[in-house]
Each structure stands twice: as structure tokens, then as C-alpha cells.
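This section describes the prediction task in plain terms. A model, or a person checking by hand, is given the sequence of a single protein chain and must write out its three-dimensional structure as a string of C-alpha cells. No templates, partner chains or ligands are provided. The sample shown here is typical of the held-out split.
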Amino acid sequence: MAIGVGLNTAFVGVEVAAGISSGSLALLSDAGHNAGDVVGLLLAWAAHALARLPPTRRFTRGLGRSTIFAAFTNAALLLAACGAILWEAVHRLAEPAVVQGPVMIAVAAVGVVINTLTAWLLARGRREDANLRGAFLHMAADAAVSAGVVVAGVVIGLSGWFWIDPAVSILISLVIAAGGWDLLRESTALAMDAVPRGVDVGRIASDLAGIEGVAGVHDLHVWGASTSAISASVHLEITDASRADPVLAEATRILQKTHAISHTTVQLNPSPPKKMGTGAN
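The expected answer:
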């Protein structure tokens, strides 16, 4: 991730200079987005490091939730940047400025290469860590956005339609805002201990209820301990106390292996005796 941060930081400086010299709002808007990406990568990097620290007496569950707050902060920064870009782009549509298409093409082409390389560097850890997966998808989207700026530069060079520059800026902002809003919703939900995406609580309850000796499933709670770890707690009613150990082992296996829940708490309770019916003579 350090290589990705370094490459993107250098590219932001190049893109800002090129955007100012060429008069391209598309380049400046993409530079603002890439600057947000650098902050996002740094936040993801720092949060990933904090999440790996061992628990302490004060933070008994560790600092894994820092990845959730990093995602929330990244989403808020992205949305704020989108608002600023949209405001300027709307004004530019009314009075399009002359831009240099060849400069747009050259700089954005470099952006395609850098963002693609950064995405490739993040690809290895994306399957195990949602925080890294989010960064990977973000950089892959950036490569596509930079490709859009290249297309805009080509169109301007061929047609002289300078309004294409702010139009592409608006399109870029809308694409970023869509991803930022989704990230904001998900990180907010995780911060409020919502069930993480992709987790089917109904199926978990059904699988646990299917264990031999389990008479009931109660107080099932599933939440994100971080963007890459899921926790769960549940009460199981058992009909035979002598089967407590096998029931606990099977419940733990189902939660951890079948549903990829890393931290589980299972409490076994004896099933209450059935009430005998009364009849009249």
C-alpha cells in the first residue's frame, strides 16, 4: 500500500499543475478525487495496522473498529469533494473555458497506468479484508474515470467542444458520489452494529436450529467487529445436557466455517420442560 500512496501523491501534484496550465476542470476534479484517494489509502493503511494490534485492558476487543471509522471518514471526504467539483462544473457549463486537449490526454493516460498499478498492488488482500477490497475497487474505478478524461480530451481535440470538460467533471463527480454514498451508508450501518452485508441471519438461525439436540435459537446477534471481521453471539436451548459439548462444537463450526464469523459466543441453556395438558373427567 505504501507504493500506491507514493505513486498517487506524486500524480496528484502533476495533475494539479497540468490542470491549472491547461485550464482543464476535468483534470482538477480528478486531482481532487485522487487527493481524496491518498487520504483514503492512508486511513485504510493506518486502520489496518491498528486492527492488527492485540487487545489491551482498556480496549479489550482491540482496535478493529478503527477500519469502520476510516471508511466513514473517507466517504465523508469524497462527498464533500464532489460537492465542490459539481459547484464549479455547473458554472463552467454556462461559460466553458478553453482547455488543451493534448495535455488532458497525456496526464489522464498516466493516471490510468498509476491507478491500474495501485489496484493491482491491492488485489492480493481484497478477498480477505473488506477494507482493502474497498480500496482496490476505488482505485479500479479511478482507472476507469481517468480513461474517461482521456476520451474527453480526444473529443475536445477533434471537435473543439470545450463544454465537454465540465460535463465530464460532472459525470466524474456523480460516479464518485455514488460510491461515496454507498460507502457512507455501509460504514454508518457497521458503526451502529448492523448485520454486515452478505450475512444471512435467517440462514444462520436455521443452520443452528438444525443441530441435533437443539430445541430453540434465541438472542442471535451478528455485527461487524471491523470491516474484515464479523462477530456473533447466540443462545441455544438444548434438550440433553449430556450433549452440550458436541452441540457447542457443531455450533462453533457452523458459525466460523460455514458463515465466516471470526469471533463467536455461544451460550447453551437447558430447554424448559413442556407443560402437561389438563383434562376433565
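For orientation: The chain has a mean pLDDT of 82.
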